Here is the input.
Amino acid sequence: MARALINVPQKATRGQVIEIKTLISHIMETGFRHDNVGKPIPRNIITGFVARYNGEEIFRADLFPAIAANPFVSFHTVATESGTIDFEWTGDNGFHETGSAKITVES
Amino acid sequence: MGKAKRAHHLTSTWARRALRAFAHPTLLLLALCNFALATEIPLDQRRSGYEDLGRDTKAMQDDDTANPATFGVLDGEAIWNSKVGSANKSCADCHGDAAQSMKGVAARYPAFDAREGRPVDLEQRINLERRDRQGAPPLKYESHELLALTVYLGRQSRGMPIAEATDPRLAPFIAQGRALFEQRQGQINMSCAQCHDDSWGKKLAGNVVPQAHPTGYPIYRLEWQGLGSLQRRLRNCIVGMRAEGYEFGAPDYVALELFLMQRARGMTIETPGVRP
Here is the structure.
């Protein structure tokens, strides 16, 4: 079952600003809803997202119930060296998902 | 005092003016003919609901890696390739690569099924194939599995024009769909045509009324925070009219789907669409 979609440019030149886009499949249940007999539906959200470039943290986000289902997070970073960009999502009920993408940086 | 003089005495100036206005030929004609006011949108003026989207929603639809419906497409591909049922067969075992064999299929559905003796939509076709070829139980309407399969199949027709129905057996069902589209219904007592043929482009509760062409179904609807079928969207509208909705899979829905697809014939499939 597909969980995360990652969009990182395959190639970049050193010093170039690149855009990274991520999309993760998650219900993001706010905890404020009730079912049809009035019972509250418990909160079930992603609470944290981290991106690391060759092991070094380049982006971090805390997520709250206001974020809609299937959170889309995009950010810019500077392409410094070839390697791997790793992504990690953590959330309620022990939710833990990872993804990664390789990037080739030319001078 | 004569009868006429007494009548004049009873009628107020306001009422007299109103009666005179109503006797005006054009207004009288409009009042008599309001059931026939709905006029079909000229073919070259048709536009997809995509055109009414905000910039960010359009960006969501345009980028497969930002469109949450892509998860459904990927799940649908996995289901396509997995063996099920007493026959232990996958869709791929008979149909091969969907990107080849299913190209154009969603663009010509609903299609006539000779055994059923009526048109069936893509969801029903999938369940018929599961029953007859795979020996598998039907997938429930609006289940993630059925939505994933239909969005996967719909995706294979992206960019193609909706096919014109040339099968003569479909004609009475298209007519049935048209009648459903034009009939007033519910407590609100309005027809689909009154909004979507006559008032498209105008606003309802702050939202632009679209022309209602099913070019992107199944869609990822922001309101649902998930995928949904055309029938689910139709049910939303029918409930909005405070009318009694049909059961999912009802022949009425299929006739309406068929009519809507023909009303949109020639327009480009954009499945999976994103809508607000």
